[in-house]
Write a structure and sequence with these properties.
This protein is an alpha/beta fold. It has one domain: Response regulator (Rossmann fold). It is about 40% helix and about 15% strand. A 5-stranded parallel beta sheet has the order 2-1-3-4-5, sandwiched between helices. β3, α3 and β4 form a beta-alpha-beta unit. α1 crosses α5 and α2 runs parallel beside α3. The longest helix is centred in the last third of the chain and has 18 residues.
């Protein structure tokens, strides 16, 4: 169980190493410590969330940043599985992808994404957007640690 004073865990599901680097560096520049865990596809994200395989000791994330276009199990499929799971569906998921397609946006919200953000192409803009996501979920939104949730 994580207390509000503990470092938030962010699960970044992203297969592009360059995007991983830019996003993790942007999170480091928020000025607040973040425990960023990275997985390269939707299946590994599910394994992480279920503490399966190599992820047996994985912490429960406080936020998931989910790319749509990944190998094996893509973000659309992973989103659908996560939001259908009664234990996992409460974890906020921000779809963070390059697509600005109405089909992808509407499909993500149909699958119960908490937010959909198109990745900016410019580094400074990406940095600002990542910091806005972080600020919104960890400073603006109310947060109840998973161990203290009540029915």
């Amino acid at each position: 169980m994580r207390s509000p004073s503990q470092i938030p865990v962010i699960l970044l599901a992203e297969d592009d190493p360059g995007d991983v680097l830019m996003i993790t560096e942007a999170l480091q520049r928020t000025g607040s410590p973040r425990d960023v865990r990275v997985v390269g596809d939707g299946q590994e994200a599910l394994d992480f969330l279920r503490r399966a395989g190599d992820h047996g000791r994985a912490p429960r994330p406080d936020l998931i940043l989910l790319d749509l276009n990944m190998p094996r199990l893509d973000g659309r499929q992973a989103l659908e599985v996560i939001k259908a799971d009664s234990d996992l569906k409460v974890i906020p998921i921000v779809v963070f992808t390059t697509s600005a397609s109405a089909i992808d946006i509407n499909g993500s919200y149909d699958r119960h994404a908490n937010a959909y953000v198109s990745k900016p192409l410019e580094l400074d803009a990406l940095d600002a957007v990542v910091q806005q996501i972080d600020r919104f979920y960890f400073s603006v939104c109310a947060f109840v640690p998973p161990g203290r949730r009540t029915a």
